[in-house]
Write a structure and sequence with these properties.
The complex is a heterodimer of chains A (about 375) and B (about 260).
Chain A lengths: L3 E8 L5 E8 L4 E5 L6 H9 L6 E6 L2 E5 L4 E2 L7 E4 L11 H11 L4 H14 L15 H13 L5 E5 L7 H17 L4 E5 L2 H7 L2 E6 L2 E6 L1 H6 L4 H7 L2 E8 L2 E4 L5 E3 L7 E7 L4 E4 L9 E13 L2 E6 L6 E4 L1 H6 L7 E6 L4 E5 L15
Helix pairs in contact in A: 2-3, 2-4
Chain B lengths: L6 H23 L6 H5 L2 H34 L5 H13 L2 H12 L6 H8 L7 H26 L3 H8 L4 H12 L1 H16 L3 H6 L10 H11 L1 H27 L6
The chains are: A alpha+beta (about 375), B mainly alpha (about 260).
Amino acid sequence: MTGLDAHLVVQRPDGFVLDVEFAIASGETVALLGPNGAGKSTAVEALAGITSVDRGRITLGGRQLDSPSTNVFVPPEQRRIGVVFQDYLLFEHLSVLENVMFGPVSLGQRRAEAQARAQALLERLEIQDLADRKPPQLSGGQAQRVALGRALATEPDLLLLDEALAALDVATRGTLRRVLAHHLADFAGPRLLITHDPTDAFLLADRIVIIENGQLTQVGSPEDIRRRPATPYVAALAGTNLLAGTNHGGLLTLQHHAQGLQTADTSVEGSVLITIHPTAIALHREQPSGSPRNTWQTTVATVEPLGDTTRITLAGPIPLGVDITPGATAALDLRQGSAVWASVKATEIAVTPAALGARTDPPDEVGG
Amino acid sequence: MRQRAPWQLLVLGGVGAAVFVLPLIGLLTRTPWSRLGELVTGEVVVDALRLSLTTSLLAAAISLVLGVPLAWLLARVDFPGRSVVRAIVTLPMVLPPVVGGAALLFALGRRGVIGEPINEATGFLLPFSIWGVVIANVFVAMPFLVVTVEGALRNLDGRHEAAAATLGASRLTVFRRITLPMIGPSVRAGLVLAWARALGEFGATVTFAGNLQGRTQTLPLAVFVALEQDRDTAVAISLVLVAVSLAVLLLLRDRWWSTGGDT
């Protein structure tokens, strides 16, 4: 057992309760993804040992770190968890090299050895030229690498990155995400990424754990989560359209819209969550002939370029997000207010039991 | 853009400054300039100056060594009776120093609760010794350092200390290598305040340590005595005190003090 096994139950004084359980294998990157206020910071504090769990357990590499039932609590300085903090928390009175040496020296290593290790790390992170600088003289990206180096210098059993990219501007994020992915792959132990940004989670993680309001709502590979989002929040993250309704033999009645839909999936009856991927919806200027049964006329509400695709949102009867190529947008001459026909194949409409969605009454139309 | 100060503020602020400037002018007009060199090199003055510098610096150093940990305890450890302890620690700031001196005498004097056993065991007597002066100085000066440092510790964002802990640093290492450097400006400001208070200390010293030339007679005490007998000497000693204090304050203000308040 070399990975992390955690069940965190923390009751905050303000009444908020965090209750999540997950495991991370060695060499695996897991993203803990959730909106602000979901309890991510509380999870970081519990894992790092800054707060203790009220119930549950934390086991890392076979070592119990926190277990109220057996009265075990290992303080932060003995946990061997390398944390890259939000806004990095570099020590401003120490140079970059001294920041990276801090861990090894604190753990009792001789200064010369600690310095050699820190220098090797700086070289690996390609920031050896910054060794003598003080943190206020660093850019956001440089500070991030120093923070990563400082955490790695202790040779931790778990690497914990708390919103490691949140403090950077959009332009540098893309580059640094790739750099980070590269360095994450170098770390052999379990890696946990705490983030509110789905892009970070989808691009960096092998597995995503979603928390909302202190509770775990979905766990799966980025692909699973993109295909079958369990809650409106996840659907919105994945860009998927999520609707609520009921399924009767493939005939879908929507909860908030008059238009009906047909699905090929008849395995789930009754109350369902309906997901339609934005690329599965086709748009036409004329009514399509020999059409799929899910065809209706609507107007374009917004047109928004989104990287390689264009995101179109449709007005009623079913407000949906549609991704098509910029070429198609031009060919169809789509503008706000354009009249279009929308069509979806019945095989492209996925249904999941509503109970899995962890909501009794999911709010409708959260696509995009 | 330059703005003229409103005349109301100019007048009130000017009167405020005059409160401090006028006595200084008074002192300067009464200064016997022709005899000044001879007066300040007199045996009494030189003894008092040496004693004042020694005891105030010692008191500042002791305040630093004991006061910073005390401030840390008051700021960080939630022990029962903390607010009472904090009130007692700051009491010397509002108490008349004479009362403080008397209290020290009852505790550490020849017949004091602690003083008597010490005196019987070792023959050592704190009052009327240079250590008496130092203790009296610490008693009145340390609160200034404790209050300043505790305030800084309370305002300190503890997340850097938490980060240091995750890197394997023990509590003491975190305090030494992270906390102390981060509150450095406030510690220095508190140290200067404590030293300045110790240098000017009169009431507790004269009550607890007495007024023996060369042993416990500091500059303020020497001024008081001289005022009764020899006005010119009193003025000369006062001028020495003003010069030493002003020099230190001016020298340290730019380097230390300006950043002291905002950490």
